[in-house]
Amino acid sequence: MADIATWAIKDTLTYGIIQSQDLVETHKTGECRNEIGQVIRVQQYDKEYQGTVTIVTTGELPKVGDTIKVNDKDLYISSVEEIENNQNFQTARISCKGTKKITSIEKAKAE
Question: Residue 105: pLDDT band by 50, 70, 90 thresholds?
Answer without folding.
Answer: low
